[in-house]
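Hey,

Quick one before I head out. I ran the complex with nicotinamide-adenine-dinucleotide overnight. Inputs first:
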Amino acid sequence: MTKITVARGDGIGPEIMDATLNILKAAGAQLDIEEIEIGEKVYLAGNSAGIEPSAWDSLRRTRVFLKAPITTPQGGGFKSLNVTTRKVLGLYANVRPCVSYHPYVQTKHPVMDVVIIRENEEDLYAGIEHRQTDEVYQCLKLISRPGTEKIIRYAFEYARAYNRKKVTCFTKDNIMKMTDGLFHKVFEEIGAEYPELIKEHWIVDIGAAKLADTPENFDVIVMPNLYGDILSDVAAQITGSVGLAGSANIGDGFAMFEAIHGSAPRIAGMNKANPSGLLLGAIQMLVHIGQNQVAENIQNAWLKTLEDGQHTYDIYKEGTSKARLGTAEFAAAVIARLGQKPASLQPVDYSKSAANFQIKVTPKPAAKKELMGVDVFLHTADRNPDQLAEAIQSATQGALSLSMITNRGTKVWPNGFPETFCTDHWRCRFKNHSSITYDDVLQLLSGLHEKGLPIIKTENLYHFDGEPAYTAAQGQ
Ligand code: NAD
């Protein structure tokens, strides 16, 4: 028996959870279930996180969470339960297999079997946003080396465990040379430890276009959080329906499994919803807890059900479908086929899959870090960069001197173009030819402040082991 925590969620949640648990039970899954309440009721009872504090005790006990979709109430103040759960439990990897079931489910991409592995905790989802001036808002994109090493190694270990042939990485490192650059670099470093796997990297824009056009050329794809969020929905949708995809959120000690779709309130309580997404999430859970044989039996019976044309309304099509079933009847059709394998769709084989691998990250020794200068961000509605440079230069003396001014990243001083559109947000770079101390920065800031130049924020300019750890300006 393995202890798991189950939440029935909102909307179609309870009916697809019933269908899923009935199938798991009939297939002989050895589960000791604890139920918790999450979602709309909890939100509306005044808990802005959507989950009772006591529910965390159950999750800490079981460490495995099968979760039905929930309804996030409209209006401000409610925090996303998914983001909270991922972050609190350290669920760094989001795994979404996207498979076509042609010709039984209509799709423009008959040959497609892609697994998207999305980093789940970092990137623009750190949620650190600020309004800095009248005109400019900022969202901080954070990519860490340990976070990247974990997700990249997870992707390679997953590919190995599931007999995949190729791992592709998507980034935008031609533009974001430091953050996405790190992701790409770690992909190359760790990839070298997996000689049996083919490795490739695409810039995310053309990579996404190729994924939407020729998904048959992809196998496992690993990417930072935002690209993964968007492209895993695209990949699931082009298989035929988002209703057919499950997802696993994996951490070091915890894991959460769910459907990728939401609570579909319009069809709630009508016994219409397709339980397949949650069922496939539950199958990932069974492999995770080592009940591979049960997982394999259920998925093969489910494939046979699709093949036999036993379809819920969302994938029902005159001609290919044979019966239009409700949620409970679809579950009964899967149960009736337990022990059978599909005849033309590829049966799954989880006999050798061990998905519960531990990912270790070795901390790197600290680099030699030297302070070489500072970027000071100023808020001024005066749009003349030459005048701004003059005002700054008259306000500052000491070790640091003004080397350039940019506006939205483009150099506007010295030798800027008069055509460049400027906002009220100026990045002023101060440097010295050798290393400085933070006292030099404080002296500079107090000079600027005394002259009434409004400072929004600063970013220190470092060299790590002698290498500049900041980017040049566009146009520099
Ligand atoms: P949705 O995924 O609930 O529905 C989108 C469309 O797909 C609808 O037409 C719906 O009827 C259909 N659909 C979804 N699942 C289906 C299924 N199993 N079978 C058949 N058809 C299905 O997305 P939405 O309408 O944007 O969101 C509804 C609610 O769900 C919102 O409150 C949203 O915040 C929430 N949501 C929750 C999760 C989650 O808990 N993981 C994820 C996404 C959205």
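Residues 12, 16, 69-72, 82, 243, 258, 261-267, 273-274, 277, 314 surround nicotinamide-adenine-dinucleotide (CB under 6 Å).

Talk tomorrow,
K.
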